[in-house]
């Protein structure tokens, strides 16, 4: 399966993802293709909508202390639902769909989610720190929300101006 990252301002990023009902070979192929795409693009998380598949699927692999992302740390999350959230934290986020732009975003400090694995088995996960932030960021993608949507009006205007400049520079290369 050949995947490419959908980049802002592509309207597909605003699409709400549909629940997964078939935990079949098609889903497994998507998951198996998403992982190398995420690693090759230096991501720590990737939602299926970011590779033009509007289904409630996301993957995460938080780097260890040495900055490595071993396969065994991969988390595949399908049909996630937040069941608990607590606290508040601010973290400088980036996004594979909004390249070269980073901004502080407020998120819940800890969360607990229920989800399904690639075989449809129900799982539960409690997360804090970067994992909690990454889960919330990727779950926003499933709702058609980008991290830039969480910026204040003035920061959002600044982003639009800077992003247009970056896009022009990238096209010039």
TrEMBL record:
Active site: 138
Catalytic activity: N-terminal N-formyl-L-methionyl-[peptide] + H2O = N-terminal L-methionyl-[peptide] + formate
GO MF terms, alphabetically ordered: metal ion binding; peptide deformylase activity
Enzyme Commission number(s) of this protein: 3.5.1.88
One GO term (biological process): translation
Enzyme class: hydrolase
InterPro entries reported for this sequence: Peptide_deformylase, Peptide_deformylase_sf
Positions with a binding annotation for Fe cation: 95, 137, 141
The protein's required cofactors: Fe(2+)
Highest taxon in the source lineage: Bacteria
Keywords carried by this UniProt record: Hydrolase, Iron, Metal-binding, Protein biosynthesis
Cofactor binding note of this UniProt entry: Binds 1 Fe(2+) ion.
Function: Removes the formyl group from the N-terminal Met of newly synthesized proteins. Requires at least a dipeptide for an efficient rate of reaction. N-terminal L-methionine is a prerequisite for activity but the enzyme has broad specificity at other positions.
NCBIfam families: pept_deformyl, PRK00150.1-3
Family listed: Belongs to the polypeptide deformylase family.
Name of the protein: Peptide deformylase
């Amino acid at each position: 399966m050949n995947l490419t990252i959908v980049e802002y301002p592509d309207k597909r990023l605003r699409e709400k993802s549909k629940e997964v009902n078939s935990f079949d070979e098609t889903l497994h192929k998507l998951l198996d293709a998403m992982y190398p795409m995420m690693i090759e693009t230096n991501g720590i998380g990737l939602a299926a909508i970011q590779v033009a598949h509007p289904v409630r699927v996301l993957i995460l692999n938080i780097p260890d202390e040495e900055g490595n992302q071993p396969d065994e740390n991969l988390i595949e999350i399908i049909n996630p639902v937040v069941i608990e959230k607590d606290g508040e934290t601010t973290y400088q986020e980036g996004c594979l769909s909004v390249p070269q732009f980073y901004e502080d975003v407020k998120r819940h400090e800890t969360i607990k989610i229920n989800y399904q694995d690639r075989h449809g088995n129900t799982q539960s996960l409690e997360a804090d720190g970067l994992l909690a932030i990454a889960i919330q960021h990727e779950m926003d993608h499933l709702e058609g929300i980008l991290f830039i949507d969480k910026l204040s009006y003035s920061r959002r205007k600044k982003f639009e101006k800077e992003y247009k400049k970056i896009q022009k520079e990238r096209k010039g290369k």
